[in-house]
């Protein structure tokens, strides 16, 4: 097991390097000159050139890339142009918001998505199945932002139950934290619940048709035990894969949701930084997101090994 | 002990209901052995699964009666049926690769039967599982018990299936093509094991196979099925020496013998009709070397040729009577 972990992390290093290089190149291919924007409308060419020299933008791209990577390796993500702050600090401040949002949405998605999928599969071809699948379809077809707006109109404006914007840190007040996040988290989760339910259902149907389920029935195993012990455990591989993918989607989805609910998270930072051509911040946050995806994938592989003896013993 | 009366099984498919098994009747006493043969698709598995009521209820229709110890299994509530499964009647299947749960240890899967029916706790069930692995002659049982199915060979997995089936010493074991997926030497070992266990436990065994030779050697009596119907029933010796139905004759000729070139193996020409595509009159008529015009007019009845020997072929029956 330890060997597997070490191996997967070693494998991830080149992947992360590629992520870093791609992030850097992407930023330098985007139109717009940071120096011009920083200098402001009134600036003359001389001061723009000066800023460019200060930032090192006058050097060839490969040299800039090299410096960036060398600094990264030493834990230095650079300084933000718009915030007068180290990128690492700016990210560190906002990370809890995005993590809270994504994790809360994930915690809502998992039980509901799995339960709906299993229920639909067990009652396949009945009205229960149809009802769950129609709901799931609605969940995946209606755009996030639209649900968000409807939800704000209902729960914040009309009923006044929940704040429509803003974030309360967890260490200030738990109920405030939850109130500030529950609405965006549910909105974010709706799509994923529908998606997870559909995937779980099809995985479950597949397993329920397997010979070993018939064997269990032939032994006299009760239906509930068959579903939980014999069938669901065999769908875990697929459920874990989908769950990992969903976690990635949730992180991506928070970028949009943070805009709508004015949550000061990574997503908002990224959008602001792109607007301001604050390339150190853009690079830093993109890199962080990329690392998050790589990390999630390692996690999935490790969970595989845990749930499936065939992987574990290889 | 087991008495099947006019069992018919229909399945719902896209185009409606199709009749898979039609009007099957037979009986089986305690400590008896019965073989069921027929080509693939003749309805053997469907008949066997009906006894344990393992068909998916939502698209299956069963008629007739399956009497076991004086009660009709077809009308038993599901809860009572569950008590019978694995305790009184057990079953093993054709494909040992896929019949075991890949994420559970074999000890867990064998012990589960005992935990359900004899309310053993986990430790006792594990100990009993080791004993059962010994009984099916798996070496080093105490170590093997924590293995997962993928760590075992096909023959070993079938032994595990057997251990699981006999855990509660059932009175009836249904073995549906238990050796079809295994190679020849392993086949013989598994059949030997089943023979010994039948003796040891005193259970009845229904052995299902497409190989008439294998079945006739194992069982006291043999049923031949074709297109969902019984076409012949006879003691094994009779079936082996002088089968009466043209289809049984074909099956007998198709048995590979040791001195024969495998490449020149005999096969009955044509293939078995699918349910819903069966011809009028005798199901076997399109492939039968003895077919008469009358054969396609009306479905032939199953008739007694001599005590204990039934066939569904009026042509052969008449011929036998005239020759004495
Ligand atoms: N669940 C099912 N749904 C529809 N048709 C079925 C089903 N199970 C079996 N059949 C059909 O019933 C016939 C008999 O099948 P089976 O009993 O499995 O044959 P075998 O003698 O090879 O065991 C086949 O034509 C098969 O296609
Ligand atoms: S009834 Fe006719 S077609 Fe059918 S098996 Fe007998 S001879 Fe052949
Ligand atoms: Mg079969």
Automatic annotation (TrEMBL), chain A:
Protein name: ABC di/oligopeptide transporter inner membrane subunit
Cellular component, GO annotation: plasma membrane
Family per record: Belongs to the binding-protein-dependent transport system permease family.
PROSITE patterns (UniProt xref): ABC_TM1
Keyword Metal-binding on entry: no
UniProt keyword terms in alphabetical order: Cell membrane, Membrane, Transmembrane, Transmembrane helix, Transport
Protein topology in the membrane: Multi-pass membrane protein
TM stretches of this protein: 12-30, 101-123, 135-162, 174-197, 239-266, 286-307
TrEMBL record, chain B:
Matches recorded under PROSITE patterns: ABC_TRANSPORTER_1, ABC_TRANSPORTER_2
UniProt family annotation: Belongs to the ABC transporter superfamily.
Primary subcellular site in the record, as a coarse category: membrane
Locations listed in the record: Cell inner membrane
Name of the protein described by the UniProt record: Peptide ABC transporter ATP-binding protein
Keywords: ATP-binding, Cell membrane, Membrane, Nucleotide-binding, Transport
Pfam family for this entry, one: oligo_HPY
Domain ABC transporter residue range list: 2-252
Any Gene Ontology biological process: transmembrane transport
PANTHER family for this protein: DIPEPTIDE TRANSPORT ATP-BINDING PROTEIN DPPD, OLIGOPEPTIDE TRANSPORT ATP-BINDING PROTEIN APPD
Membrane-protein topology: Peripheral membrane protein
Organism of origin: Primorskyibacter flagellatus
Domain of life: Bacteria
Gene Ontology cellular-component terms listed: plasma membrane
Gene Ontology molecular functions: ATP binding; ATP hydrolysis activity
InterPro entries: AAA+_ATPase (IPR003593), ABC_Ni/Peptide_Import (IPR050388), ABC_transporter-like_ATP-bd (IPR003439), ABC_transporter-like_CS (IPR017871), Oligopep_ABC_C (IPR013563), P-loop_NTPase (IPR027417)
């Amino acid at each position: 097991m330890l060997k597997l972990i070490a191996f997967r992390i070693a494998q991830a290093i080149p992947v992360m390097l590629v992520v870093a290089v791609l992030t850097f190149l992407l930023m330098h291919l985007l139109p717009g000159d940071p120096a011009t924007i920083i200098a402001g409308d009134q600036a003359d060419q001389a001061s723009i050139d000066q800023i460019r020299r200060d930032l090192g933008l006058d050097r060839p791209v490969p040299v800039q890339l090299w410096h960036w990577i060398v600094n990264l390796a030493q834990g230095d993500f650079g300084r933000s142009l718009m915030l007068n702050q180290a990128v690492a600090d700016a990210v560190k401040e906002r990370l809890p918001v995005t993590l809270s949002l994504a994790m809360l949405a994930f915690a809502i998605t998992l039980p509901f998505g799995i339960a709906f999928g299993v229920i639909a599969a067990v009652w396949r071809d009945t009205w229960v199945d149809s009802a769950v699948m129609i709901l799931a379809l609605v969940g995946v077809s209606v755009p996030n932002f639209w649900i968000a707006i409807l939800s704000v109109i209902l729960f914040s404006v009309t009923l006044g139950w929940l704040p429509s914007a803003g974030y309360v840190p967890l260490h200030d007040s738990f109920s405030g934290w939850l109130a500030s996040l529950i609405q965006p988290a549910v909105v974010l989760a709706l799509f994923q619940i529908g998606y997870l339910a559909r995937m779980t259902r099809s995985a479950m149907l597949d397993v329920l048709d397997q010979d070993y389920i018939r064997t269990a029935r032939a032994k006299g195993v009760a239906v509930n035990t068959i579903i939980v012990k014999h069938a669901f455990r065999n769908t875990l591989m697929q459920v874990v894969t989908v769950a990992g993918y969903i976690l990635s989607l949730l992180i991506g989805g928070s970028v949009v949701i943070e805009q709508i609910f004015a949550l000061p998270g990574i997503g908002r930072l990224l959008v602001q930084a792109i607007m301001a051509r604050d390339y150190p911040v853009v690079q830093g946050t993109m890199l962080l997101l990329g690392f998050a995806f790589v990390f999630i994938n390692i996690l999935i592989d490790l969970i595989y090994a845990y749930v499936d003896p065939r992987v574990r013993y290889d | 002990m087991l008495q099947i009366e006019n069992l018919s099984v229909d399945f719902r498919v896209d185009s409606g209901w199709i009749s898979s098994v039609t009007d099957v009747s037979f009986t089986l006493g305690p400590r008896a052995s019965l073989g069921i043969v027929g080509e693939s698709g003749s309805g053997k598995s469907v008949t066997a699964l009906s006894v344990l009521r393992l068909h998916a209820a939502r698209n299956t229709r069963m008629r007739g009666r399956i009497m076991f110890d004086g009660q009709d299994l077809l009308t038993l509530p599901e809860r009572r049926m569950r008590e019978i499964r694995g305790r009184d009647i057990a079953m093993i299947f054709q494909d040992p690769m896929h019949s075991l749960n890949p994420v559970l240890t074999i000890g867990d899967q064998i012990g589960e039967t005992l935990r359900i029916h004899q309310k053993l706790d986990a430790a006792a069930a594990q100990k009993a599982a080791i004993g059962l692995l010994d009984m099916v002659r798996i070496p080093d049982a105490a170590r093997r018990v924590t293995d997962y199915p993928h760590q075992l060979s096909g023959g070993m997995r079938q032994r595990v299936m057997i251990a699981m089936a006999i855990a509660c010493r059932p009175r009836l074991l249904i073995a549906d093509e238990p050796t079809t997926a295994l190679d020849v030497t392993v086949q013989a070992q598994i059949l030997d094991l089943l023979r010994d266990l039948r003796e040891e436990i005193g259970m009845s065994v229904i052995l299902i196979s497409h190989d008439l030779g294998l079945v006739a050697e194992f069982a006291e009596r043999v049923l031949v099925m074709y297109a969902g119907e019984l076409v012949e029933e006879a003691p094994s010796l009779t079936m082996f020496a002088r089968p009466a139905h043209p289809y049984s004759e074909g099956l007998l000729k198709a048995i590979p013998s040791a001195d024969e070139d495998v490449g020149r193996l005999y096969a009955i020409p044509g293939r078995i009709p699918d349910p819903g595509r069966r011809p009028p009159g005798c199901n076997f008529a399109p492939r039968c070397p003895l077919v008469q015009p009358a054969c396609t007019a009306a479905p032939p009845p199953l008739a007694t040729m001599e005590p204990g020997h039934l066939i569904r072929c009026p042509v052969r029956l008449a011929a036998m009577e005239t020759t004495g």
